Amino acid sequence: MQNPIKPTIKTELFPILLLIITSITSFYFYSIFPEQVPMHWNIAGEIDGWGSKTMGAFMLPVTMVGMYILFLGLPYLDPRQKRYEQFSKIYHGFKAIILLFMAIMYFLIGANTLGYNVPIGTLVPILVGILFILIGNYTAKIKPNWFIGIRTPWTLSSEEVWNKTHRIGGKIFVFSGLLFILEPFLPLNYQGPVFAIIIIGIVVGTFSYSYFIYKKEQKK
């Protein structure tokens, strides 16, 4: 079976290096982490969830390995696998960006666990915002498939609806990313509502727009 995303040394070197670095670091973290490590922070940046040092040291690296394997395997499972050839560079870019985001999160959390003054409540929304902006800039280039992109009943039913929804969706993601970056600098009582508005805006905005475009296309 032909590989629809054509992995090469160039496309896989960076993700594999991230996996190697985080895997090696996980054993180091395990050797020096306390028995209980912070696992979750509330919107104010305060720790509100704890876990074992095994979870703290190994959970994210193992998740990253699983994510990498998933990225390699999804195109083979997709009935529209031939479309991946048309956006394979974007697909590999998404893979690298998401793994890099997870690696940075892992090192920030690890540093915080070791007692360094890492402002998780400020840095995480900023990183999420940057992730959304990067994803938004490439969203319009994703071709119809069953796993990656804005998948609604209407985008999956029409390539025109898919393309138009992803052009608008990309702009929504970029705008949402900017809001995420600004969110930690707002008064604390505004941060929760702003976060909720961003998530609802992304879901409702892309979902309703794809339906609107689909109905408009049907009338033609």
Describe the structure.
The chain starts with 8 loop residues before the first helix and ends with a helix. Helix 1 packs antiparallel against helix 2 and helix 4 packs antiparallel against helix 5. It has a two-stranded antiparallel sheet. Helix content is 69%, strand content 5%. The chain has 220 residues and is mainly α. It has 2 domains: 1-118, no CATH class; 120-220, no CATH class. It is built from 6 helices and 2 strands.
Q: Which descriptors apply to this entry?
A:
mainly alpha, 2 strands, two-stranded antiparallel sheet
Explain briefly what this protein structure is.
By secondary structure, this protein is mainly alpha-helical. 69% of the residues lie in helices and 5% in strands.
Mean of residue pLDDT values: 93
Radius of gyration computed on alpha carbons: 19 Å
User: How is the main sheet built?
Assistant: 2 strands, antiparallel
Strand content bin: 5-15%
How would you spell out the order of helices and strands?
Answer: HEEHHHHH
Strand order of the largest sheet: 1-2
Proportion of helical residues: 55-70%
**How many β strands by DSSP?**
2
Structural class of the helix and strand makeup?
A: mainly alpha
Any chance you could write out the topology, listing elements then pairs?
Elements: H1 9-32, E1 36-41, E2 47-52, H2 53-77, H3 88-113, H4 120-139, H5 159-182, H6 188-219
Antiparallel strand pairs: 1-2
